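Annex B. Sample input.
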Amino acid sequence: MSTINLVTPVPGPKSLAMLERRKNALPAGLAKSTEVVVDKAEGGIVWDVDGNTLLDFAGGIGMINVGHRPEQITNAIKAQVDKYIHTCSLVTTFEPYIELAEMLNRLTPGDFPKKTLLCNTGTEAVENAVMLAKYYTKRPAVICFEGAYHGRSMLTLSLTSKYSLFKKGFGSFASDVYRLPVPNLYRTPAGMSEQEYLSWCINNLEHAFIAQVEPESVAAIIIEPVLGEGGFIQMPAPFMRKIRELCDKYGIVMIADEIQSGSGRTGQLFAIEHTGVVPDVITVAKSLGAGMPISAVVGKAAIMDCTHLGGVGGTYGGSPVAAAAAIEALKILSSQEFLDRATHVGHLIQNVIDSWVSKYAYVGTTRSTGAMSIVEFAKDKNTKEPDMELPLEVLKDAVAHGIILIRAGLYSNCIRLLPPIAMTDDQLLEGLQVLEDAIQRAHEKRGK
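Annex B, continued. Sample output.
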């Protein structure tokens, strides 16, 4: 029995009216991947205001790994609201902040004393992580990587890649930011083997300390263990080990940005666990709050304690209501049952999408790290020239047929798949069939 049920076009008349209100009330620069207008959501299902039932394969850009509105979490939110909403951690002390910090200190990689700072957004978490690294090391420079997305504040936007979408028109940016290439093995340069290319990328890390910035000036190296906006590119373990080695050698703080790749999405609570590398600081957000706005910076106690009194914090950081939700979410996300389910979901998706590479001329490759999966489109399988038009066409077609999607990739030539892990196997297969049908129709239009 299918879950998707379309009673009007998507968008329908009520949705169109709401979209017109959005157009008139909200900034034009606030983009939207789809024209779905939500009425309610549960598990992996979204109902729009016109009565259509859709499957959510975007998951709020990885925000709802546990699914929409799990009862365990909504009950915790309601119970906290009935006690108090917020009294500010800069003024008072409340247990939800402390309990969540204790959980994160225990669950994050690393057998050393840790402390946690709670914030509201991923951007804030990254901003604070970098600030702490600079304060701790008394150094100005930060190394980041091509394809990275770290946020939209002035500092984090300086760290973010993909200039035309996120950065155009907003400069000048923060100084002392140095960006290095990552090993995207799908785009191994012609004439090189994957191993040669990986070795070049690893060697380039040390070369940067000669060509771009001296290591004694570098406060932090920040990296996503699996690039999110950059196209779900998993960082090879040797590459991550080299970063760890250089950080140890030169006293640099290694920051793992796990905002999209963490929270159990890849079958480990944190994606960096696949590499065996332990960072000094981890940033967490998105699915940590199960839809509530909360983020965290978790790191070595010496780094987290380094600032003067009052050097960190914010009015809404560690909101008790958001913390209550995150505590229950983290109980789910860290359970072996959930992590095993995420691995299963990833295998199911990959087993389906793998066949698309040979079946469809413009599907260049597919990738999965656990249930963090992507389909990358190319105009030619040999040249691998990114196709930026076809995925947008496919996305619009698939949404019109009942699944919610969003693109990704440095060239916006990918469709990312981040369905809630709560989605059933039947729902996953139903949604993937809708996506494949849209891919097939796009190929047929091109005579392929």
